[in-house]
Amino acid sequence: MRYCLLAFLGCTALPAQDVPILGDVPILEEDLVTKQPAPETTPDVYVPLTLWQNYAWSLHQAFGPGQIFATAAGAAIDHSTNDPVKWGGGAEGYAERFASRLGRVAVREDLAFAVRALDHEDPRYFPSRQAGVWKRVRYAAVRTFVVRNERGGTMPAYSRLLADFATPFIAQTWRPEPVNVGREVRGGAIGIGVAALGNLSKEFWPDVRKKLLR
Q1: C-alpha R_g of the chain
Q2: How many CB atoms lie within 10 A of CB 68?
Q3: Domain assignment of residue 171, given as a range
Q4: Structural domain total, the chain
Q5: What is the DSSP letter of 41?
Q6: For residue 144, is pLDDT > 60?
Q7: The pLDDT of residue 207 is above 60
Q8: Which of 20, 104, 184, 193 has most Cβ atoms within 10 angstroms of its Cβ?
Q9: Residue 27 backbone dihedrals phi, psi, to 5 degrees
Q10: Residue 67 pairs with which residues in a beta bridge?
Q11: Could you give the CA distance from residue 168 to residue 165 in angstroms, rounded to a whole number?
Q12: CA-based diameter of the chain, in Å?
């Protein structure tokens, strides 16, 4: 349950306005996703990201306000359960847990970007144009494993799969417990599940937000 909550917070706590960083490169998902015309007017026009924009995307995924909030919340949960025990309690223990979670996210995004730089994946989520809840759910689930490439076609999401399964092993090098293959593989599977929940949030949250604003 805590992973579902953190995934939702990380995907929906982003501000709607433009937030430029590192020069004039916009990094919010609303800014990086190509503005899509209405399906009944003109066809979809795909504009790929530059390498710099692709890297800016990773920076935002690791250090954007929504992700920082989710990281802080996750560290608070770890702190409340004293996980790991050797880091103790108090402000120092929480700081170590927060730094560990932040480092884990940063490692994951660095790995994902390195793969994308080689195979030219586009990390953005492009909402479905299909009608019907279940069709959109299926579309969002499939897009956990399939992404666009710079030519506008589709390809396997190698960056996500590699980063999600490699990160738990790397992160364990600074934690006090020894590496446990089964646990780290489960951590990678949880990462994939969190990504799927994130896609569902991106697919349906705009609709929910419109209804709430009404």
Answers
A1: 18
A2: 16
A3: 2-213
A4: 1
A5: T
A6: yes
A7: yes
A8: 104
A9: -120, -5
A10: none
A11: 6
A12: 60
